[in-house]
Amino acid sequence: MSVLENDLLIKNAPVQVTTFESGNEMAAMAAAQINYHIMGYFPITPSTEVAQYLDQMKTRGEHDIKLIPADGEHGSAGICYGAAATGARVINATSANGFMYMLEQMPVQSGTRFPMVLNLVTRAISGPLDIRGDHSDLYYALNTGWVIITARTPQAVYDLNIMALKIAEHAKVRLPVIVAYDGFFTSHQKRKVNYFKEKKVVQDFVGPCPTDYPAIRDVKKPVTIGAHMNGDDLLNNHFQQSEAMYQAKEVFAEISKEFEKMSGRSYPILDLYMMEDAEVALFLLNSAAETAKDVVDRLRKKGIKAGVISPNIIRPFPSEEVRTALRNVKALLVGERADSYGGNGPNLTHEVKSAIQEDKNNETIVLSRVFGLGGKDFYADDAEEFFHMTLDAVDKGYAEKPFDYYGHYLGKQENDLAPVIEPQYGDVYNSGLIQVTQDEENNKLNVKVPPLRSLAAKPKRLAPGHGACPGCGILTGLELFFKGIEGDVVVLFQTGCAYVVTTAYPHTSHKQTMIHNLFQNGPATLSGTVEAFLELQRRGEIEIQDNTTFVMVTGDGGMDIGMGSAIGTALRNHNLIMLEYDNEGYMNTGSQMSYSTPIGHMTSTSGVGRAQKGKAFHHKDTAQIMAATNIPYVFTASEAFPQDLIKKAAKAQWYAQNVGTVYGKLLVTCPLNWKSEDRFGTKIVEAAVNSCFFPLYEVENGITTITYDPEDKEKKVPLTEWLKFMGKTKHLLKEENHEMLNDFNNEVDKRWSKLKIKHENPLL
Length: 764
Description:
Radius of gyration: 29 Å
Structural class: alpha/beta
Strand order of the largest sheet: 21-18-22-23-25-24-26-27
Mean pLDDT: 95
Shape: globular
Number of helices: 25
Distance between the termini: 80 Å
Largest sheet: 8 strands, mixed
Low-confidence stretches: 1-8
């Protein structure tokens, strides 16, 4: 390009605005400017912010994207696939185990060739659980058939999100695309970025939504999507998909040049830094490459010919470009934030080795190091150490240790932590003050519990020193429930606030055995634990107390994504208790909307503004859903009514030990996200009960009994008496939101009336 042509290009370039934003903010900005049709999403750290920012934009009327909250990542992937198959433009964002949960759906979408864009905000795969960034989730994406482009900076996140849609929809590609960027390093850290002032510039660049491929949008042209194939046809299908994947590299290069003309920013296949004459080099993905570039500058001043290679696209893998870049490099270290266990090096190491093997004249020594797992920082000193490893290999003429981990260390026996509290078990948890007997006439249980002060001597199940927020109702509610449980417990905590704040390795607040599993599989996991205990006991291999109780604790929306597992467990009728603390949202990831969030309530994904007024639909009645599975005992409870809660806990234990599965639901406060005062916790849940929003009842062997009737007690209050305590609902008290408040009030009245009818008619 001539100087004159370049000057004309700059003069006619679209106006860009300079700002200071994070990767998540820029992903949302690109999506809003494109104005996708659909986003199916489910919150998971650190990708959740993308949906939150889009929700905030929507409240201000800045885009028309239909945001659909799913019941889990598998559901969100289904929503996205269904929308893409309809010919809509679709976007999503996820991380870590959320990506793993949707993994089954990924090849379905690529195999049927429906384009969309997924922002994969990379994070460590559990377990053990670590919410910070590495590439262990990204590496599971390599064989899904999705094009994968990588973004090192917030600027790249914005730019590549725009390019990604154009690549996905290109006639030679027509595949879904992942834009991968580092969790927290890129997703949350703010950097200087430029974005196009007018969204029309972005929309003109990506062009109109293509309609020239089969989709289910036109009933006059019926299509069958995903028909069953035999081996011959499947082989042909995958061949065509493979060809499209390789075409994506050429299309990426073509679109990158178009984007450079418009923006002035370049995204070549490989980002090569000082590689023209490099003798030693690092191959790094994403943000780590930026750190290493500063080290290259330092080493170059010392006369060391160092360089950095960082691909902008890894699916398809740019083998030819890698071969060319390494032609004169004497030693290369491939640093990877993930491992392929047992493979003598992670995935990209082998792909680099495979690429240079095709060049018979290449004698590059390749070292492989796994680093930075679980968000462990990668500093300039670490990059310099990597370069020293390559220099050592050059001096020796070989890699003394071709594959290794970097930054790990062996523990020392003298640092082993001793328990602060002596193990408490057995009789220490048997108060002998709670009596449960069965009425032979009606098969109902009669429970006698002493005054609360009599149970004060019973040890708590959780030790102090946990990390719960001030005023959190979860742990106080759980401790009150456990006052009604005699003997030992084995507890499973699904992911959520209660789990996170009580288990920070190497410490734990749990005095008795606790196991963790993810939201979607807690009930099934505890099912296996219960049956294993019972079978080991039957065979005489272990001894356990007869009144040992198995309890699964879920909350923070866990009965959305985990509903299928819970129903399956209930139908099998294992001897366990499922206890849900309901704080009306996904509080552990930042107060996103869950299906238990009531209508009109404000969360970080159901904002309040000009275009929307909080959550748009009513809350899920989990207790009634679980009662429909015909398990022996279902109950609701609140710490504002402690005697009622302890009685129900005692009943729950009896049924779990003698009959089968129990489900209980506790309403607990979350002052941080409810925007309420810490001191009002008990008062708030009491008002929720007295307004009949959260009625206290039990379903015992199919018979419904209201255990506290605020109308009979003459304590019923209007719904507004509960709503006025919380900042998240104050907008509902305004006159302009009267219609929504009236809808909410009518729903509460309807559910309460139905419950009373069931109470009065045992056969219902």
